[in-house]
Write a structure and sequence with these properties.
By secondary structure, the protein is of the alpha/beta class. It contains 15 helices and 11 strands. The chain has a single domain (6-347), classed as Aldolase class I (TIM Barrel, Alpha-Beta Barrel). The protein has helices at 6-15, 18-32, 75-87, 105-118, 129-139, 143-152, 168-174, 181-193, 210-227, 244-248, 257-270, 281-284, 286-291, 309-312, 321-330, and strands at 37-41, 43-46, 92-95, 123-126, 155-158, 197-204, 230-237, 276-278, 299-302, 334-338, 344-347. A 7-stranded parallel beta sheet has the order 2-3-4-5-6-7-8. Helix 1 (6-15) runs antiparallel to helix 11 (257-270), helix 4 (105-118) packs parallel to helix 6 (143-152) and helix 5 packs across helix 6. It is globular and about 50 Å long.
Length: 348
């Protein structure tokens, strides 16, 4: 099949009827996943700190270091969360936090070593590019050195968080202190070369254009051509409540379900080199998350035992394993629990 160009992708977003996009995306999904298996992972999102100096305008989760409700979890609190996850058959922790201004590489090494030693069967999927970037700066070492040392102590893969829109004109407005597009891509490229896989993400629905959305995809696709290190692509819409960005742009439109499904299906068509497309039921709700399976998504992501960032912005959704299985079966697909590497652990 001929690779979709940027201009063709933009045209599909702007003009193609939604049901036709569904059919196009489904055909590609079935060619990549012919057994109609939809996967999910049982994990827990552990935010080890909410202290962050970056001040992203779209974030309602972060706190300043002297705020009354600022925290850094201790080992006992983290262990308690992992113990709860193990009791429900969890296999992975999504481990990330704010960008703490004082935590250096040694702190992260000790923490990872503690977790990986005490819980050898738990996969640590953690630390977004912005965290890697700041750990490198404050510790005065390279990205490569940070990633090598984290991997040595138990880090398995890194999430795509912090990508938002990979266009510096957008980033300079919504998150001016966050690392730029070039550096986000560099962190992931170095990780891939060290055999640390990652995911690619996108948050749309702020001030970006369709063209900037597709240019973001183009950067991801080009890096994937080079490294093959992205396991999945995940996109979600900006969650606005309690954020500084909505105060700055009060007329910013809420993103519709139609818009989400439209972008998701074109992303499935566009990413001919990324096998897995994840549905974001956390931001879209369980039923649109389910509907996404008919628009190219083959994975429902995490049952999300704990979620703090999106809920801080006013969106609270939750699903347990049985509900996840039912959502998948209800659209005629076969549910399966997977691990971080997308290997199937159990079918239902």
């Amino acid at each position: 099949m001929k690779r979709l160009s940027n201009q063709e992708a933009i045209k599909l977003i702007k003009t193609q009827p939604l049901l036709e996009l569904s059919q196009m995306a489904t055909n590609i999904k079935k060619s990549l996943h012919p057994k109609n298996i939809t996967t999910f992972v049982v994990d827990r999102n552990i935010n080890y700190t909410n202290i962050c100096w970056v001040d992203c305008k779209f974030c309602a989760f972060y706190r300043k270091i002297n705020d009354k409700d600022a925290y850094v979890l201790n080992y006992e609190q983290i262990d308690e969360k992992i113990d709860e996850l193990l009791k429900i058959g969890g296999t992975q922790i999504l481990f990330q936090g704010g960008v703490h201004p004082k935590l250096k590489i040694n702190w992260y090494e000790k923490l990872l070593k503690h977790i990986s030693t005490k819980y050898p069967n738990i996969t640590i999927h953690g630390f977004s590019s912005i965290e890697i970037d700041y750990i490198a700066k404050i510790s005065r070492i390279s990205y490569k050195e940070v990633l090598k040392r984290l991997k040595t102590n138990g880090l398995s893969s890194i999430p795509g968080a912090g990508a938002e829109i990979l266009d510096d004109k957008v980033r300079d407005i919504i998150a001016p202190k966050k690392l730029g597009t070039k550096n986000w891509l560099e962190v992931h490229e170095i990780a891939h070369k060290l055999d640390i896989k990652s995911t690619a993400t996108q948050m749309y629905g702020t001030i970006e254009t369709d063209e900037q959305i597709v240019e973001h995809w183009d950067k991801i696709r080009q890096l994937q051509d080079k490294t093959t290190g992205f396991r999945a692509f995940i996109m979600w819409s900006f969650q606005r409540k309690n954020t500084a960005l909505i105060k700055q742009f009060p007329n910013m439109q809420i993103q519709s379900s139609n818009r989400y499904l439209r972008l998701l299906s074109v992303a499935r068509i566009y990413f001919d080199n990324i096998k897995n497309i994840q549905s974001s039921w956390v931001t879209q709700g369980s039923y649109i998350g389910q509907l996404a399976l008919m628009f190219g998504a083959n994975d429902l992501g995490s049952t999300m035992l704990e979620e703090n960032v999106v809920s801080s912005a006013g969106t609270v959704n939750s699903i347990n394993q049985q509900q996840m299985i039912k959502l998948i079966k209800d659209v005629g697909e076969y549910p399966a629990k997977r691990n971080t590497a997308y290997n199937i652990l159990q079918r239902f």
